[in-house]
From TrEMBL:
SUPFAM superfamilies: Protein kinase-like (PK-like) (SSF56112). InterPro entries: Kinase-like_dom_sf (IPR011009), Prot_kinase_dom (IPR000719), Ser-Thr/Tyr_kinase_cat_dom (IPR001245), Ser/Thr_kinase_AS (IPR008271), Ser/Thr_Kinases-Pseudokinases (IPR051681). Residues 154-416 form the Protein kinase domain. GO terms for molecular function: ATP binding; protein serine/threonine kinase activity. It comes from Aphanomyces invadans. PROSITE patterns: PROTEIN_KINASE_DOM (PS50011), PROTEIN_KINASE_ST (PS00108). Keywords: Kinase, Membrane, Transferase, Transmembrane, Transmembrane helix. Coiled coil: none annotated. This is TKL protein kinase. The chain crosses the membrane at residues 74-94.
Length: 430
């Protein structure tokens, strides 16, 4: 089956998409070095996706292509039925692979420091030397200038995390402890910086106890642009779940954490903002402060152009988004349900899903089963019934089947009331 027949055309070239004229001219938009187009006029399938990958193509020899026998016709017919779904999955999986690779190999030149992960070192001033081809537009300056911090007062001290876009540091600003997000050199293209500025602009408008607080932005040049937010001393929920047992992190504490997360979503959804990346990695914890939502690099206000291909971590992604539908707040609720499953298991989503020989199921198979309503979030025998019920409701296959964030919060708060009154048996399980 040809790529066109599946609705996917991979346009590969040696240069990065943001600097490659061939790739750019073929595709209508740039998303994390993937040029994506929904124009179908040039292809066999409707809603075709064009992914411009930065890797050179691997040469193939057509002489090795087998003839299609009559016995294979049935399997090809079945494959055609799944072609459109596979077209959507190609971009998701390729993006996830590149993000994972970046997590393992950190380009430390992006921060002008050499340090061991999590180790203290002498403070480094956040600035870069040398000329840069990038400059801020007047529109960028209008967005950033009201939030500009004095870069001479900002210090990077401890590397906390690395991801697909850059690094997060514990630092100090004017004596106060802060978290600092810095882009990798490879992300410091015009498109990368524009996305970073959009995150600054959005965070600056969010003031809520359950959303990480915005401090400001710092730069000496375009390439040294950094986002500064409040510091949460327990790190993210993903790591916390994997370093603490169910006894250490009881359901009494988990319930508070879940309610904090949902309060953050209620705030966002009331403002017509979709987070679009709700997962344990994007929930921050603290010994004193409530749990908070973080990482708004992919959040968007609701609009008709909010398309699924731009973002998504597939294990937490709603089935309609995997199919290529438009994001709605209901997609956040599905991701919340998956996150509640993490609170139960202390493991990544679908960690226990295996194939016939007992090996782990591949991501593409998990995605296909989620899309077809054949795979759901399991709960343990120790999971409180109210959480199990919320997981089931939040991960309903259709968006209309899922509750709102306000309804989920109401259920969690009712649980608290019942516990205070002594009418609740759920916590006896912990």
């Amino acid at each position: 089956m040809t790529a066109a027949a599946t609705g996917v055309q991979l346009v590969r070239d040696g240069g990065a998409c943001d600097s490659n004229g061939v790739c750019w001219s073929t595709c209508c938009s740039l998303r994390q070095n993937v040029c994506i187009s929904n124009e179908s006029s040039s292809f066999v399938a409707d809603n075709a996706t064009v992914a411009c990958l930065v890797d050179p193509p691997t040469a193939t020899n057509p002489s090795y292509a087998p003839d299609v026998s009559q016995n294979e016709t049935f399997y090809i017919s079945v494959g055609v039925g799944a072609a459109v779904s596979i077209a959507v999955l190609v971009v998701f999986l390729w993006r996830a692979t590149r993000a994972a690779a970046t997590d393992k190999h950190v380009d430390m030149s992006s921060t002008d420091v050499a340090t061991i992960h999590g180790s203290d070192r002498p403070p480094v001033r956040l600035q870069r030397h040398g000329a840069t081809a990038l400059t801020f537009s007047d529109a960028d300056k209008q967005i950033l200038d009201p939030y500009r911090l004095d870069s001479s007062k900002l210090e990077l001290k401890v590397l906390l995390a690395t991801g697909g876009y850059g690094t997060v540091w514990r630092g100090q600003y004017d004596g106060a402890v802060v978290a600092v997000k810095v882009l990798f050199d490879g992300r410091k293209s015009a498109a990368g910086v524009s996305k970073f500025i959009a995150e600054v602009a959005l965070l600056a408008t969010l003031v809520n106890p359950y959303v990480v607080s915005f401090v400001g932005a710092s730069w000496t040049t375009v390439e040294s642009l950094a986002l500064v937010v409040e510091y949460m001393d327990l790190g993210d929920l993903y790591d916390y779940l994997r370093t603490h047992s169910a006894v250490e992190f009881s359901w009494t504490a988990k319930r508070r954490c879940a309610a904090d997360i949902v309060r953050g979503l209620v705030y966002l959804h009331d403002r017509n903002i979709i987070h679009r990346d709700v997962k344990s990695r994007n929930v921050l914890l603290d010994t004193v402060k409530p749990s908070k939502l973080s990482d708004f690099g992919v959040s968007r206000e609701i609009s008709s152009k909010t398309m699924s291909q731009e973002v998504g971590t597939y294990l937490w992604t709603a089935p309609e988004i995997l199919r290529g539908d438009r994001y709605t707040v209901s997609a956040d609720i599905y991701s919340l349900g998956v996150l509640l499953g993490e609170l139960d298991s202390h493991q990544p989503p679908f960690y226990n899903v295996t194939i016939e020989d007992g090996g782990p199921m591949l991501g593409v198979s998990i995605m296909m089963r989620v899309m077809q309503n054949q795979l759901h979030v399991d709960v343990s025998p120790q999971c409180p019934p109210r959480i199990a019920s919320l997981i089931d409701l939040c991960t309903g296959h259709g968006p209309a089947q899922r509750p709102t964030a306000a309804q989920v919060l109401g259920a969690l708060e009712a649980w608290v009331v019942d516990t205070v009154r002594g009418n609740d048996l759920d916590l006896c399980r912990t």
